[in-house]
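4.2 Preliminary Data

To establish feasibility before requesting continued support, the project team ran the inverse folding procedure on a target of 284 residues. The structure was first converted into the token representation described in Section 3, and no sequence information of any kind was made available to the design step. The complete token record follows.
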């Protein structure tokens, strides 16, 4: 039975500035008609200029939040964002292995758009923890640098990234939502200028690509969190990943276009990365 109002649990970090993390997730889930819940993994002191502090929560505090929700509330979809430490990655993987939610979207958050590190990666423990999470996820949403870290493969141009995404899907039995937002940093600027591609890559290798015009703005903080929670909400309401991406991508581009008008943060500073406007569709 598809729920009229999907109940969506975000397992993610808190962004005090409200543009990314659980704050972005709750706003996005509400914008798409879902009921949002959270299990907070870490508190970040963060604003539109960068991340000033990161404080991961104790494993038992995160586990208690997950157990409280699961003990009482049916969860139609889970979105996983910043996990912060390998211990928290393992704890969340363990909870997912026990509870097996119907829809699990894993946004493999490693660094903030400001460049600040948010989750440990790289050593053997980290790699094993990512592999466990990937096994219980239904959709993983890497950007190009995250895909390169997860696969150890080159993902600097779109075709190489699609190949690496097929490899990731086959290795872990997970559908991949490959995001092309970082292509302007890796491809020749003229090749990346006009459009930003995203693609759903299925385990068998089938690719469903959705392209949209590149929005020129520095209001790009939280785009990854926003996309993954939109997809989780839409999948919780019964849509396929392909249909969910067709709906979410143009909505996110509009949210980016509307971001600067929010007047959040000091945009005169070169470090400014303002939030997208998660509520733009409601504001009209
Ligand atoms: N300039 C842009 N114009 C239009 N869409 C964009 C642009 N940049 C990113 N996107 C879209 O935003 C989503 C996130 O993509 P991106 O590759 O930036 O992920 P990310 O790096 O995880 O995000 P974040 O900046 O939140 O960490 C994708 O759907 C992508 O297509
Ligand atoms: C808490 C948090 N999660 C994720 C991101 C990635 O954008 C961020 N900047 N902050």
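Position-by-position output of the design step:
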């Amino acid at each position: 039975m598809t729920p009229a109002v999907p109940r969506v649990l975000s397992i993610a970090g808190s962004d005090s500035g409200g543009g990314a993390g659980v704050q972005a997730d709750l706003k996005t889930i509400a914008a798409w008609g879902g009921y949002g819940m959270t299990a907070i993994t870490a508190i970040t002191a963060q604003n539109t200029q960068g991340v000033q502090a990161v404080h991961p929560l104790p494993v038992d505090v995160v586990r208690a939040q997950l157990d409280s929700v699961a003990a009482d509330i049916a969860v139609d979809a889970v979105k996983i964002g910043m996990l912060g430490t390998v211990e928290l990655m393992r704890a969340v993987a363990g909870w997912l292995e026990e509870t097996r939610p119907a829809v699990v979207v894993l946004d493999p958050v490693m660094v903030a758009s400001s460049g600040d590190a948010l989750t440990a990666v790289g050593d053997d423990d980290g790699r094993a923890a990512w592999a466990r999470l990937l096994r219980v996820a239904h959709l993983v949403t890497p950007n190009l640098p995250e895909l390169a870290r997860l696969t150890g493969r080159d993902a600097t141009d779109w075709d190489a990234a699609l190949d690496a995404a097929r490899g990731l899907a086959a290795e872990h039995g997970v559908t991949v939502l490959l995001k092309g937002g970082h292509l302007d940093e890796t491809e020749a600027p003229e090749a990346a200028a006009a459009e930003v591609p995203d693609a759903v890559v299925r385990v068998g290798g089938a690719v469903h690509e959705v392209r949209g015009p590149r929005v020129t703005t520095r209001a790009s903080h939280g785009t990854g969190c926003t996309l993954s929670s939109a997809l989780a909400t839409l999948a919780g309401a019964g849509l396929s990943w392909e249909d969910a991406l067709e709906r979410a991508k143009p909505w996110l581009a509009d949210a980016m276009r509307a971001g600067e008008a929010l007047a959040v943060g000091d945009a005169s500073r070169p470090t400014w990365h303002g939030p997208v406007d998660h509520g733009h569709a409601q504001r009209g």
